[in-house]
## 1
Amino acid sequence: MTYAERLKALTEERGALCVGIDPHAQSLAHWGLDDDVAGLEAFARGIVEVLGERVAVFKPQSAFYEVHGSAGIAVLERLLEDIRQAGALSVLDVKRGDIGSTMAGYARAYLADEASLRADAITLSPYLGFESLRPAIDLAHETGRGIYVLARTSNPEGGQVQLSKGDDGRVVAQQVIDDAAAENARSGQNALGLVVGGTHADAGVDVSHFNGSILVPGIGAQGGTIEGLRGIFGDAVDLLLPSASREVAHGGPSVEGLVDRVQTLLGR
Ligand SMILES: O=c1ccn([C@@H]2O[C@H](COP(=O)(O)O)[C@@H](O)[C@H]2O)c(=O)[nH]1
């Protein structure tokens, strides 16, 4: 099955929600944990232990595992395995972007069947040029994995680049969206998704023709709300995968608190 097919099946069963697993110091302290490898492991794997069979998608933020060096990466490997075992999908938030030959290395690191850090999907930056992503796009198609390309990010600074106009009058983020849509139409796999933040009253882009998943970070701690999504995305709401990290994690460490946050975001 392709990533798009697995995502559709799971979100129909569990609801369209991505829970981010971001073990930064503030969240570890909230759980009464130290900002070390033991704290990282207890937090990250603890979230999946409680929510693994309830939530469709988990999104570990690679930065917070990399902080702890090889021991942190080993925790990330175990976490990705936990997510697989729970029957959920993983989106590894790595936001890589580089020239094509280096992108081939990143593709092997995260999208190959034999990679120890393999995830169901990853985030990539197309801002070295959309075609620089080609090795990752090709490998994702080959292995049935997905890629979320940064289009219109949730942070206030993003518009400086993403909303600047190209020669044809389209803003840069719109060019990314149109290129991703064309690639999906060509492959028929819809392996390419977009990242569009849920924090903008007007995102300044048109996703009405898009044909893949749209990951929507920024829900909760950054001010985005589930209720506000229709106003931003219109009829494309069916494509959305809203994502919340601190908003869910800070319901923990109690089981009830975590489950309650998820149920609220799912409108249950
Ligand atoms: O545009 C983007 C792309 C990615 N992110 C990442 O999502 C989480 C957000 O965490 P919250 O605690 O839910 O605010 C974090 O890992 C970001 O790096 C994003 O926020 N915006």
## 2
Amino acid sequence: MNILEKIVLHKKKEVAQAKANISAKELELFPAFGRKVNSLSASLLAEGSSGIIAEFKRKSPSKGTINDKVLVQDVTAAYSAAGAAGLSVLTDEEFFGGNADDLQLARKSNPRTPVLRKDFIVDEYQILEAKAWGADVILLIAACLTPEEIRKYAATARSLGLEVLMEVHDEEELTRSLTPDLNLIGVNNRNLKTFEVSIETSLRLVEQIPDTVVKVSESGLSSAETIRQLHTAGYRGFLIGENFMKTPHPGQALSDLVGALQQVTI
Ligand SMILES: O=P(O)(O)OC[C@@H](O)[C@@H](O)c1c[nH]c2ccccc12
């Protein structure tokens, strides 16, 4: 069993438990369920946008503990202040050390920044959770979903007013993921089955992504030069976690990168 299969197996058990604790009807009564959603695609395309989606990630299966000393509300507020176009908050506990509270705290501390629920969605119930916890965007990972599930979950998200960041890693995943309900496609430079990271993945796939969607490059990004190169290739979003989180002050690390990006543009 590869790590992705392990995660999905565990996730299905977790979701069954969550459903037994809180019904879908109850989720709809959460105050955040009725809130107005912030658009990540609009934020990425806005004039002067940094394009950076800054992630809060305590640990990961590939890196182990990255940072367990900082608070989600401090880090995400610092990310917003430093010019993040969006926030990504891991809600998987077992493998990434996140939880629902992290997302809710990030939401409360950043009312106007688009927030992505970063998790392994394998059931429609999790999309209702995302909305109830205050997310604006959900992640769908092609590597763990069938084309039918992708279509169904993307339509559910859309009906709830949430955007979808559709994550792909190769040509085959991209082709079977395209559905009209998507406005954001993320190319993960990291192979979730082997953890190998290569920016070439983003550079290779960009041509095959329709221009009607906003293109996001994910994982393994750190330098302003690489971001510039990906921007030139057509990417408008850059999802960065570890590079910020491994420092004691992730918001400052983002601020430094935004500064460096301005230098590179001139
Ligand atoms: O920490 P990095 O290398 O900057 O990567 C961030 C983000 O892309 C990565 O956390 C990620 C991309 N897709 C995922 C799916 C599930 C969990 C995590 C991820």
